[in-house]
Amino acid sequence: AQTVTQSQPEMSVQEAETVTLSCTYDTSESDYYLFWYKQPPSRQMILVIRQEAYKQQNATENRFSVNFQKAAKSFSLKISDSQLGDAAMYFCAYIRPSGSEKLVFGKGTKLTVNP
Amino acid sequence: ETGVTQTPRHLVMGMTNKKSLKCEQHLGHNAMYWYKQSAKKPLELMFVYNFKEQTENNSVPSRFSPECPNSSHLFLHLHTLQPEDSALYLCASSQAGDFNNEQFFGPGTRLTVL
């Protein structure tokens, strides 16, 4: 079974600094998709960034970028120029195109941004 | 209303009560999901519906009964729950078959079982 591991339950960063959140996953598949979701204290989960496993180029969305290491099964999220609004729970997630719409989540990392 | 809405936002119920959670999506999606979010645990997928048909039941106890009357609405009927069922219940929707497509989440229903 696929599993997603986020080894950092909590992280903190100073405003304007850079922080990296770790995620590893376990799968025997070669084709799959990876996501980072953000859940602010208001609880509505939103997508931050996504990565297709067949793409070697790391995805980037403004201040958010990933470091995707397929061989190592690692998918870390880098947040540059951190802002107070980045404070949230961040969840790493995995899905494989098997016909089942099953998104597998990690336990999450709580990010605190200090002013 | 836009996106995915859920009602009620908060629910307190006794173990003998029967209640229902409602989810509605206004995005034209054809897949809908129920997740359970408990403290210090990963989000747990409970049910998946594609085109109103249930395609995934992740070994959920029968005291949780989903219903999907159409592609826009999803219900979770609750009866004889246990205190350990207290959690945040999240609904989500997406375009079925497009695995790279994001799932859009509702704000959740905070359920407390006394």
Question: Could you describe the 3D structure shown?
Answer:
The complex is a heterodimer of chains A (115) and B (114). In chain A, 0% of the residues lie in helices and 50% in strands. Chain A has 115 residues and is mainly beta. In chain A, strands 2, 5, 6, 10, 11 and 12 form a 6-stranded mixed beta sheet that branches. Chain A has a 4-stranded antiparallel beta sheet with strand order 3-9-8-7, with no helix packed on it. In chain A, a hairpin with a 2-residue loop joins strand 7 (60-61) and strand 8. Helix content of chain B is 0%, strand content 56%. In chain B, strands 2, 4, 5, 6, 9, 10 and 11 form a 7-stranded mixed beta sheet that branches. In chain B, strands 1-3-8-7 form a 4-stranded antiparallel beta sheet, with no helix packed on it. The model of chain B has no long low-confidence stretch (mean pLDDT 91). The interface between A and B is medium-sized, with 25 and 25 residues.
* Helix-strand category of chain A: mainly beta
- Spatial separation of the terminal alpha carbons of chain B: 32 Å
The biggest sheet of chain A, with number of strands, parallel, antiparallel or mixed sense and barrel status, is: 6 strands, mixed
Q: What pattern of helices and strands is seen along the backbone of chain B?
A: EEEEEEEEEEE
Question: What's the number of extended β-strand segments of chain B?
Answer: 11
Structural class label of chain B: mainly beta
Query: What share of residues are in beta strands of chain A?
Result: over 45%
- In total, the number of strands of chain A is 12
Q: Alpha-carbon distance between the termini of chain A? A: 41 Å
Helix content, binned percent of chain B: under 10%
Percent of residues in helices of chain A comes to under 10%
Radius of gyration of chain A: 14 Å
Mean pLDDT of chain A: 92
Biggest chain contact: A-B, 25 and 25 residues
